[in-house]
Amino acid sequence: MSLSLLRAVRWIVIAAGAIAYPVLAHYSAATSAATTFPSLGVAVSLAPSLAILLWLTWRSPTRWVMLLLCAVVGGLLWGFWGVLERNFSWVYFLQHAGTYAMLAAVFGVTLGRGRQALCTRFAEMVHGSLAADEIRYSRQVTLAWTLFLLAISLVSSVLFFFAGIEVWSIFANFLSFPLILLMFVVEYGIRLRKLPHQKKHSIMDGVLAYWKTPAVRPGASSDPR
Question: Transmembrane residues, as ranges (predicted)?
Fold first, then answer.
Protein backbone atom coordinates (compact mmCIF):
# COMPACT_ATOMS: atom_id res chain seq x y z
CA MET A 1 0.00 0.00 0.00
CA SER A 2 1.45 3.39 -1.00
CA LEU A 3 2.24 6.10 1.53
CA SER A 4 -0.35 8.46 0.04
CA LEU A 5 -3.03 5.78 0.30
CA LEU A 6 -2.09 5.09 3.91
CA ARG A 7 -2.40 8.78 4.70
CA ALA A 8 -5.77 8.94 2.97
CA VAL A 9 -7.02 5.94 4.94
CA ARG A 10 -5.73 7.46 8.16
CA TRP A 11 -7.56 10.75 7.56
CA ILE A 12 -10.73 8.91 6.58
CA VAL A 13 -10.59 6.95 9.84
CA ILE A 14 -9.95 10.15 11.81
CA ALA A 15 -12.84 11.94 10.07
CA ALA A 16 -15.17 8.98 10.64
CA GLY A 17 -14.25 8.91 14.32
CA ALA A 18 -14.70 12.66 14.66
CA ILE A 19 -18.23 12.32 13.27
CA ALA A 20 -19.19 9.08 15.02
CA TYR A 21 -18.03 9.99 18.52
CA PRO A 22 -20.27 13.04 19.15
CA VAL A 23 -23.25 11.21 17.65
CA LEU A 24 -22.66 8.20 19.88
CA ALA A 25 -21.99 10.45 22.88
CA HIS A 26 -25.27 12.30 22.37
CA TYR A 27 -27.16 9.05 21.88
CA SER A 28 -25.74 7.51 25.04
CA ALA A 29 -26.23 10.61 27.21
CA ALA A 30 -29.38 12.35 26.00
CA THR A 31 -31.71 9.56 24.85
CA SER A 32 -33.38 6.55 26.46
CA ALA A 33 -30.05 4.72 26.10
CA ALA A 34 -28.84 6.65 29.15
CA THR A 35 -31.11 4.49 31.34
CA THR A 36 -31.49 1.33 29.25
CA PHE A 37 -27.83 0.91 28.32
CA PRO A 38 -25.72 2.88 30.84
CA SER A 39 -22.61 0.80 30.13
CA LEU A 40 -22.48 2.39 26.68
CA GLY A 41 -22.46 5.83 28.30
CA VAL A 42 -19.61 4.87 30.60
CA ALA A 43 -17.57 3.38 27.76
CA VAL A 44 -18.07 6.32 25.41
CA SER A 45 -17.52 8.96 28.09
CA LEU A 46 -14.24 7.37 29.17
CA ALA A 47 -12.99 6.54 25.66
CA PRO A 48 -11.04 9.78 25.02
CA SER A 49 -9.25 9.69 28.38
CA LEU A 50 -8.42 6.00 28.06
CA ALA A 51 -7.18 6.52 24.50
CA ILE A 52 -4.83 9.25 25.71
CA LEU A 53 -3.62 7.01 28.52
CA LEU A 54 -2.88 4.17 26.09
CA TRP A 55 -1.10 6.55 23.72
CA LEU A 56 1.05 7.90 26.55
CA THR A 57 1.81 4.34 27.62
CA TRP A 58 2.91 3.43 24.11
CA ARG A 59 5.16 6.50 23.86
CA SER A 60 6.52 6.40 27.41
CA PRO A 61 10.22 5.51 27.92
CA THR A 62 9.19 3.88 31.23
CA ARG A 63 6.47 1.73 29.79
CA TRP A 64 6.32 -0.63 32.75
CA VAL A 65 5.34 2.26 35.03
CA MET A 66 2.59 3.27 32.63
CA LEU A 67 1.41 -0.33 32.32
CA LEU A 68 1.16 -0.45 36.10
CA LEU A 69 -0.87 2.76 35.99
CA CYS A 70 -3.14 1.21 33.34
CA ALA A 71 -3.66 -1.81 35.59
CA VAL A 72 -4.58 0.48 38.51
CA VAL A 73 -7.00 2.43 36.34
CA GLY A 74 -8.52 -0.82 35.10
CA GLY A 75 -9.00 -2.02 38.67
CA LEU A 76 -10.66 1.24 39.68
CA LEU A 77 -13.00 1.08 36.70
CA TRP A 78 -13.93 -2.47 37.60
CA GLY A 79 -14.59 -1.58 41.22
CA PHE A 80 -16.55 1.61 40.52
CA TRP A 81 -18.35 0.59 37.33
CA GLY A 82 -21.75 0.69 39.00
CA VAL A 83 -21.12 4.20 40.31
CA LEU A 84 -20.00 5.30 36.87
CA GLU A 85 -23.13 3.87 35.27
CA ARG A 86 -25.24 6.05 37.57
CA ASN A 87 -23.13 9.18 37.03
CA PHE A 88 -21.48 8.95 33.63
CA SER A 89 -23.05 12.25 32.55
CA TRP A 90 -20.66 13.89 35.01
CA VAL A 91 -17.75 12.27 33.22
CA TYR A 92 -18.96 13.80 29.97
CA PHE A 93 -19.37 17.20 31.59
CA LEU A 94 -16.05 17.25 33.44
CA GLN A 95 -14.26 16.09 30.33
CA HIS A 96 -15.83 18.78 28.14
CA ALA A 97 -15.82 21.78 30.46
CA GLY A 98 -12.53 20.77 32.06
CA THR A 99 -10.73 20.44 28.73
CA TYR A 100 -11.75 23.91 27.60
CA ALA A 101 -10.91 25.42 30.98
CA MET A 102 -7.49 23.76 30.86
CA LEU A 103 -6.85 25.08 27.34
CA ALA A 104 -7.91 28.56 28.44
CA ALA A 105 -5.38 28.32 31.26
CA VAL A 106 -2.65 27.17 28.84
CA PHE A 107 -3.23 30.26 26.70
CA GLY A 108 -3.92 32.65 29.54
CA VAL A 109 -0.88 31.86 31.68
CA THR A 110 1.39 32.98 28.84
CA LEU A 111 -0.08 36.49 29.04
CA GLY A 112 1.67 37.17 32.35
CA ARG A 113 4.22 39.94 32.62
CA GLY A 114 7.58 38.95 31.19
CA ARG A 115 6.17 35.91 29.38
CA GLN A 116 5.78 35.32 25.68
CA ALA A 117 2.18 34.91 24.54
CA LEU A 118 1.47 31.45 23.15
CA CYS A 119 0.20 32.70 19.78
CA THR A 120 3.33 34.84 19.50
CA ARG A 121 5.34 31.67 19.90
CA PHE A 122 3.21 29.94 17.27
CA ALA A 123 3.78 32.85 14.87
CA GLU A 124 7.53 32.83 15.45
CA MET A 125 7.70 29.13 14.66
CA VAL A 126 6.26 29.91 11.20
CA HIS A 127 7.46 33.43 10.37
CA GLY A 128 10.66 33.80 12.36
CA SER A 129 11.31 37.21 13.93
CA LEU A 130 8.18 39.31 14.29
CA ALA A 131 7.64 43.03 13.91
CA ALA A 132 6.21 45.05 16.80
CA ASP A 133 2.71 45.13 15.30
CA GLU A 134 2.80 41.36 14.77
CA ILE A 135 3.83 40.75 18.37
CA ARG A 136 1.07 43.04 19.61
CA TYR A 137 -1.53 41.36 17.39
CA SER A 138 -0.48 37.81 18.34
CA ARG A 139 -0.73 38.75 22.01
CA GLN A 140 -4.26 40.05 21.41
CA VAL A 141 -5.10 36.79 19.64
CA THR A 142 -3.83 34.84 22.65
CA LEU A 143 -6.15 36.87 24.87
CA ALA A 144 -9.04 36.29 22.46
CA TRP A 145 -8.49 32.52 22.50
CA THR A 146 -8.22 32.55 26.28
CA LEU A 147 -11.58 34.31 26.64
CA PHE A 148 -13.19 32.19 23.93
CA LEU A 149 -12.13 28.88 25.48
CA LEU A 150 -13.16 30.09 28.93
CA ALA A 151 -16.55 31.11 27.54
CA ILE A 152 -17.06 27.63 26.08
CA SER A 153 -16.30 26.09 29.47
CA LEU A 154 -18.66 28.50 31.28
CA VAL A 155 -21.51 27.95 28.80
CA SER A 156 -21.01 24.20 29.14
CA SER A 157 -21.29 24.52 32.93
CA VAL A 158 -24.40 26.72 32.82
CA LEU A 159 -26.19 24.43 30.38
CA PHE A 160 -25.27 21.29 32.31
CA PHE A 161 -26.59 22.60 35.62
CA PHE A 162 -29.57 24.65 34.45
CA ALA A 163 -30.72 23.50 30.99
CA GLY A 164 -30.68 19.72 31.24
CA ILE A 165 -28.54 17.01 29.71
CA GLU A 166 -30.27 17.11 26.31
CA VAL A 167 -29.53 20.79 25.69
CA TRP A 168 -26.03 20.47 27.14
CA SER A 169 -25.28 17.47 24.92
CA ILE A 170 -26.29 19.34 21.76
CA PHE A 171 -23.95 22.18 22.67
CA ALA A 172 -21.07 19.96 23.78
CA ASN A 173 -21.25 17.39 21.00
CA PHE A 174 -22.48 19.35 17.98
CA LEU A 175 -21.78 23.06 18.51
CA SER A 176 -18.45 23.37 20.33
CA PHE A 177 -16.23 22.22 17.47
CA PRO A 178 -18.02 24.31 14.80
CA LEU A 179 -17.60 27.31 17.10
CA ILE A 180 -13.86 26.63 17.21
CA LEU A 181 -13.74 26.46 13.41
CA LEU A 182 -15.68 29.73 13.26
CA MET A 183 -13.15 31.28 15.66
CA PHE A 184 -10.32 30.27 13.31
CA VAL A 185 -12.15 31.79 10.33
CA VAL A 186 -12.93 35.05 12.14
CA GLU A 187 -9.37 35.41 13.42
CA TYR A 188 -7.96 34.75 9.96
CA GLY A 189 -10.22 37.39 8.43
CA ILE A 190 -9.21 39.96 11.04
CA ARG A 191 -5.53 39.12 10.52
CA LEU A 192 -5.84 39.75 6.79
CA ARG A 193 -7.00 43.27 7.60
CA LYS A 194 -4.66 43.99 10.51
CA LEU A 195 -1.51 42.44 9.01
CA PRO A 196 -1.96 42.52 5.21
CA HIS A 197 1.82 42.39 4.68
CA GLN A 198 2.31 39.13 6.60
CA LYS A 199 2.61 35.87 4.67
CA LYS A 200 -0.61 33.91 4.90
CA HIS A 201 -0.40 31.05 7.38
CA SER A 202 -3.07 29.66 9.68
CA ILE A 203 -2.64 29.35 13.43
CA MET A 204 -2.61 25.59 12.89
CA ASP A 205 0.64 25.96 10.95
CA GLY A 206 2.14 27.45 14.07
CA VAL A 207 0.59 24.81 16.32
CA LEU A 208 2.03 22.02 14.15
CA ALA A 209 5.45 23.67 14.08
CA TYR A 210 5.29 24.16 17.84
CA TRP A 211 4.29 20.51 18.34
CA LYS A 212 7.47 19.44 16.55
CA THR A 213 9.63 21.35 19.06
CA PRO A 214 8.60 19.84 22.43
CA ALA A 215 11.62 21.26 24.23
CA VAL A 216 10.07 24.74 24.09
CA ARG A 217 7.70 25.24 27.00
CA PRO A 218 4.58 27.39 26.78
CA GLY A 219 5.35 30.94 27.82
CA ALA A 220 9.09 30.53 27.53
CA SER A 221 10.75 33.51 25.92
CA SER A 222 12.73 33.15 22.75
CA ASP A 223 15.21 35.67 24.08
CA PRO A 224 18.27 33.68 25.21
CA ARG A 225 19.23 36.23 27.83
Answer: 12-30, 36-57, 64-84, 90-111, 143-164, 170-190
